[in-house]
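Justification of resources, computational component.

The compute hours requested in this renewal are based largely on the per-chain cost of generating structure records like the one below. Each record pairs the submitted sequence with a full structure-token output. That output is archived, and it is also reused by downstream analysis tasks.
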Amino acid sequence: MSVVVHKSVLPPTGADECVSCFFTHGPHANFGAAMCNTDDDFGERTMDENVVVASGNRLTIYAVARGKRRHEEEEEEEEKNNENVRLEMVSEFDVNGTISDLCVLKHPKRFALSEETNANVLRESSSSKKNAGISGRDGRNKNSIQQQNVEYLDGLLVTIRESKAVCVCWDPETRKCVSTSLHFWEEFAGAKGNKGATTTGIDGTSSGLRISNVPIVGRADPEGRCAAVLLRNEEKAKLKIMPVSETNTNNSNSSGQKKKIKGGGTVHVPATLGSSFDLDVRKILGPSAAFVRDCCFLHGYGEPVLMILYESNLPTWSGRLSLRMDTCKLVAVSVDCTKKKYTIVWTRDKLPASAHSLFPVPNPLGGVIVLSSGHILYESQSSSATYISDVLGKGGPQEGNYAEEIARTNGVEGQAAYANPVPHVNSNKNVSSYETTQNEFQVQLDAAKIEMIRENVAIISSKTGQLITVILETVGGAASAGSKVGRRCRRIRVQKSGNAVLSSGLAAVGKDLLFIGSRVGDSLLIAYERKEKGKIGDLKMLPEKEKQEEEEEEEEEEEEEEEEEDPYADPEENARKRKSSKGKDSVPKIAKMEPPPVPEPGAEDDAEKNEDDELEALLYGTSVEAAGGVGLNEYERTNKSTTTTTRGESKTFASYVDRDDTFEYKFSVKDSLLCISPVVDLTVGASAPVGTDLDPRTELVAACGHGKNGALAILTRGITPELVTEVDPGALPGLRACWATRTEDDDDGTVRPKRKDELYDEHLILSLSSTKTTMVLETGEELKEVSKDVDFIVAEETLACGRVFNGRAIAQVTKTRIRFTRKGKKFAADDIDIAFLRGGDSHITLAIIQNDAIALRLSDGSIKIILKDTTTNTFTLLEKSEELFPSDDHSSTGNDVTAFTLYDDSVMCADSSGGYGSNRAPGWLERTASGNYEEDESMKNVVFATVSRDGTLDLYSLPSLKKLWSSGGVSDGREILAPNSSGIDSIDFNDDSDAEKYDVSDIRMDAFANAAHERPLLTCYRADGAVLAYQAFKAPSSNELRFARIPIEIETAGSELTNTDVSIQGGSRLTRIENIGDGRGIDGIFVSGLNPIWLIVRRGRVLALPTRGEGGARIAFAPFHNVNCPKGFILATNEGGIRVCRLPGKMHVEAQWPVRKLALRCTPRAITYMNDFKLYALVTSSSIPWKDFDIDETDSHARALYRFRKEKAKSEGNIVQQFAIRLLVPGTLETAWQKAVEPGEHILCIKNVQIRDQSTGALLSMLAIGTAIPGGEDTPCRGRILLFAIMWERARDGGIRWRGELKCEKPSKMACSAIESVDGSLMVAIGTKLTAHSWDGKHLNPTAFYDTPLYTTTLCCVKNFLLCGDLHKSIRFVRWKDSQGEKTLSQLGKDYEDLDCIASEFMIDGGSLSLLAADANGNAHVFQYAPKLAESWKGDKLLPKGGYHVGSLIRKMVRFQIGVGEQKQNRHAVFFGSSDGGLGIFSPVDEHTFLNLEKLQDAMRSNIVACSNSINPFGLNSKTYRALKSSEGSVARRTPPRTIVDGGLLSKFEHSLSISAQTCVAARAGLTRDQALSLARTIIAEQSFM
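The structure output for this chain reads:
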């Protein structure tokens, strides 16, 4: 039997949790060094918070960047709406655990400083303006800048599903996450009967590694005093309180000594937590407590106050509301963290039974918002308010409810007959309760998410994607800043604000942004702007003290009148009574908020549809105005109050209450994060031929999303160029390099200069080594050779070409001279020759051109640098370059420089990610490296960088050639390159070890303006084939320049990339990519070689993507912009040909697998590839209005089914689900044919089957479908088997038109849950039987059956073997036998332990067969059928051979063949998609390879590596995470004898560790570094999906 290796190929993409906080920077991080010019006040210009997103086991940190769009500076008109707001990835980490919850832990000292600063802001505003003359360019006083040497950052409390919590903070010195405290509450125990089971879970039962059935909740005090973790199940709960503790993590080095802070340097101090202690939940809530729903900390108390929402000991559900309702309660507990005691402050009872979540309201109002399915409630110590959000929340009699009709018939009267009585909160009997308002539109709030955008305004996202604005209308209180005295909530107003994606969380960012995270669609960053709608009413200020007292007396009288009202009467009737009881002259002090006009029938549905259409357009970058309700008003600077949000940051809100709703918001989607979660189904297909490229290519198609966010995701491994035209191989013998050239137009003021995307390339320069010549092609409508008609040097090989003189000329470098041309004609009268360079008898071997600087290496080893002289408009030689980099004859060290480059330092960038465009300035690298932050005219914005043989990186300024910065460790691949050091590694290794040394043969340093990577990106190509990438950053404590290594995973690293048969002329394998492809385009570096690599920079990431469909070496790359190939590129082949290509359109390059999404606007259910027809078959479901239909009254089953469907449709708003089948054409994925089934009938499975026609003996390819017709609890479920013949016919336009013809419809008495074909027979899982059918051309005839346990979820086959997965009883291995007169289904073996099988598949490795199964806990199991082993009971028992915790529910497994060429022989791996939007592979390896992999895996899990921040930043145990997990209440399975190798951990060996660290780790595994690298590359090669 082969052993299995797991590798994640696409990380989770769904956003499970999201928060906003100042995690990597403070509010004013970019206002110091960046030389921005602004007149804004210090308090007004702040950085936006980070957006932190948790996806499965991955934590991603984003910064919000604001600036201009690409080429926007060339446009004549600029609008605020065109501001380019985007999310930049700062860092992302894999956590050895599945993230359950995130909460922000604010540093208590920053909270105190923030309050003190804001309290004095009004008093100091006038004096600060007087001192504006001594302020810096950023608008702040310079003296205050120097005093701010300490900045307090927010921390994150990350709760893990395996009952753990980690407090993490950001280390700006290394740009990594650091865990400051770990908290473990997981319980270890063996399987049933294991003597080692000595501990128990919170349910008191012995268990293995348990996963909580209920999410673990983490909450933090808004003032940063403590945090709480809620561990719970359906019976018990534990509350863990963790007080804050001091930390000096970022203020000390490894030896514990204080760091030396240079002038202007900043030390970042994060928040962290100490040891936890328990709160006795049973004692707090009393014996009547049954289940804790949620908890949160409240604002505005002297001690931390924890609010707990729980249900009483006698819970209820919707079917028992008439007997028991309003079972939820609230209790506010004050926690003394010093004495570890608590005090109950106040309580509230009789809340709706459906209450599910709490959200604290910030100061000055305070209190908490409670969400239930039918209500929005506000509760505080002094007031309560209720809003009824739907008709079920209102309660009372229900029209057409059969249960109520029967009760009244039997004499039951009043509320006792109601199925849904009036909730207690609707009766206005709560303490200090005000008016209960009723909904203007219907919305259900179960699973809703909420976020505050100001002190009394919140945004709610419902489960259908509706955005709802909630206004807490307040009375009382003073107008002074920060005042909380007397502020109470009078009532709740709600308005609809538009539609968005189905959200999993909301996070307010800055003053005008809202991040909407989603598990089932792309997460959105939305900007909102207040827009007047007609006449705006007066924004009345809060009443003065005299008016407050008078108003409070009137409110008390209103409360007395409300007590006399009927608690079960209609709220509108009570309102009319209150109105009639008042005098005609009574004038309310609080203006009434009138509801909006009722829309006409169907208008709301049309509006929602239009909003959905607009949102789909927004995802592609278009803005739209969505009319909506109420939002954030413009600030009045003279009247502010400071509050603290739940994210832990002080925010400023206007201290008035909205009186009118006559305004709206303008919404626009600024950015989106790709999501293919959840992966519902998965299939491997072949893409359609593109252009002149007729070869089909493998692609992966995933059905993902839900409802209006449903989509198809087409994934490919790497970049697939689309061929436009080509020059046949061999036509250009000896081709070694190519360049596409163009020059800028002269700006004489008569015409508008062309934008960059309007300038097409003029010439294509080809360097030919076989003839030692250069060929020049003109690039117009076609490629035409013009070598004899231009002034380019054609008698020599060209080494480099580039634009100089501000883009007005082209510099061509050959071995003997440099020529300047413009549009094919000489630009300068004289060439630069070797005599000018003082090279003697040598010649040029390498040239780098950057702006107006050219660096040359001569054959004698010397390096020459020439610069443009602005006075004479000519180039001059820097004589100092001869002194620093002499020839070999004059210095023994002259040849030590192995690679060099020129860097364009004119790109605008800031000290940290994010911020405003005005914070960016050119010359960042030279300023940071030199420490000189003043503007200097001598800075030419070009930096010269070299790498020496000993691995030292040196930076020089031009033209002075003064050394700015130096660091070693580049060739070794150290994690951090720090000045005047040999590099920094987080792994302790012996520097004297015999680590191999490799030279860096090529480097580039690039920055991409207004794109994905503004700060310098250093790319190094090492002699062993490794590609290293480093990002420049500034260490805040010392203000010194550093480079942090970026781990990049390359499939074709090593010998394949450095094939010696591939020679690169000009010495450079690295070519800059900029703005290639449609839309935003892509940027990065192209690495030439046998298997070329695209290093794409996008959203702060560096992605290494292989080139697909391009066999042979690609020795050169050149961007190519032509009228027939806009934003394309050229690939030069080693065989002497060129290929003009472009990128596929609408591709999202956000991860290792580029994705193209097709919106369906409905829910995808299943997809399969029909190889015989080259089509995709897709099953979808959509909501349609319920329509009555005629039934046979004599059929009792039909009557019961009709009644069930009608009741279900009514409960869902008269909506019913209708399933349909579609045939899609590869490539465009256009619908070629579709067929809908009856409403209410569910399609459970679809398969392209091969069935033998018994009448003719022919093997037919057909589409088989299994359905289910559910009938509720009292009506048995029926089903159908449908067989379609797929046919095509010639259309009138000459194309092909596909259609499906129904050949057979076979009803079944139970649901058809799985379908497969084996040896010409159709196998269908119907209920508890697996039935074999034969086909006679008209009917399906059962021929054999096999009894299955409960419910078959999966069915797959290999030859005549079947693998059946059951929902609870694991898997069965079955054989189909069809011999002479005998047709049988017989069981070969089964798993005798319980397992909730969700997906299953065969894995083949030559003659070895393994069985894979995935359960509901995110585990993957490997079984073996081994009848010769005694423990298998002669094969009757399937032997578990391996187990592995993936971390997420595997929804689908699909088998595909692996290997390349001759190695592609009967070896299959299994691809899978998970519910969190991730993709992974299980692949087989032989026994010998597995043993070595296991040794290397153990070495990677050892303490020396596990403590490394680059490998395990959260400090969690990888081995524990990958062990099999079981849910609470279930019996844990026995541990299998072997585990599945973690390929993701092993891949970090090559791509995250330095050579020294690799040597150390390999030695611990008993291997050499070369052996360990070979093992890691073997995994990558065998798992490549090409």
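The mean pLDDT is 79. The longest helix spans residues 545-563.
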